[in-house]
Amino acid sequence: MQTKNVYDISYNIARFLGSTFKKAEKSINRIVPAPKKPEAAVKKAAPVEPKPVETKPVKQKSLLSLYEQPLLTKIVKTLFVPPVPVRKDAQTQVKATLKQERPVETHPEAPAAKPVKPALREVGSIGVSFGDRAEQVQAEIFFKDLQSPSRKVRMMAISQLKGLAPGTVVKMMEKLLQSEDDALKIMEKLNVLAALGSAAGIPKQLFRNYMERHSGGVKLAALRAISKYRDEESFQIIAEAMKDKDPETRRQALNCLCWSYKERCMPLTLRALHDGDSKVRKAACQITATLKAKQAVSGLISLLSDTDKEVEAAAALALKKITDEDFGFKANGSERDKTDAIEGWRYWWRENQTKFLK
User: Which candidate, 280, 279, 292, places its Cα nearest to that of 322?
Assistant: First the structure.
């Protein structure tokens, strides 16, 4: 039987232990008698008359009083309460705690050690100094991956460049651009630099050089990078691009002006409504609809008779967004229906032009 508390022992067991203890005590007294006192020390005592003994009612000892005997309690605990085992991990923890609590011997004569600064390291051919070995290893890996023929590997490296300092990224991109001939790779690196912008101290002339010396996607990437500066010089550069011979350059320049300068691009947008390229005219219609330019209504009505179906549809949608009017114009409708709708727009404009532009 196992118990955690002595008071949980039943009454019968307590009686058994009590009787066993008394029998053992009597047996010990018979085997080992008590020592006798010397005869000289024994004095004859005068006879004492017996006094009447007062009888008091004997109280029944409770089970609790039986347990309170020290020797019995010790016996019961020894028999019924097993020792608690000590776990190995607890012993290890105690030893570690004692080891920490030991006083550390100090030598006041010895000078305190100064922290050692890590030596500056060079990253291959980039020429960038680092004080952190981990950053150096990262930069070396990215620099190698950015030269990979696999676009997937290059894109993965570009997505991880945010873990490096902006100055390091700029130097890496400039170093790679110096020996790069592939147009796609040049565009990728220009886009990385454009994302950093003026905050990283990238000179605007870097993008302008690529805009003037290259064509196609490289030129457009440089144009978009310049538009992110959003200053007066950038506005003038992009506005000058609206005169470019390449229609895609003009279209991208118009979009950049709208994204970066909003209403300020409206004079150039109104002029682009009559551009010689249908994609430029369509982009101009979409911009007027986005900005809800009332001054573009007249030009949009004239584009309802454009030679390109997409331009007609874009002009009709822009008119509806700007004026909240609809005369049922459909670019894919019959010529008669289109003519009637155009006449409806022209008549409405003659009657409402003055008050609409106020």
Answer: 292
CB 253 within 8 A of CB 268: no
282: its two tokens: 């369509």
What was the pLDDT predicted at 55? 54
- Alpha helices of the chain — where are they, by DSSP H? 11-31, 63-67, 70-80, 88-101, 133-145, 151-159, 166-178, 183-196, 204-213, 216-227, 232-241, 247-261, 266-272, 278-291, 297-302, 309-323, 335-356
Global pTM reads 0.59
33-84 pLDDT, tens digit each: 655 555 544 444 455 555 555 555 544 444 444 444 555 455 445 444 445 4
Q: How far apart are CA 282 and CA 311, in angstroms?
A: 5
Query: Which burial class, exposed, middle or buried, applies to 2 when counting CB atoms under 10 A from its CB (0-12, 13-18, 19+)?
Result: exposed
Contact 249, 223 (CB under 8 A): yes
Distance CA 218, CA 252 (A): 12
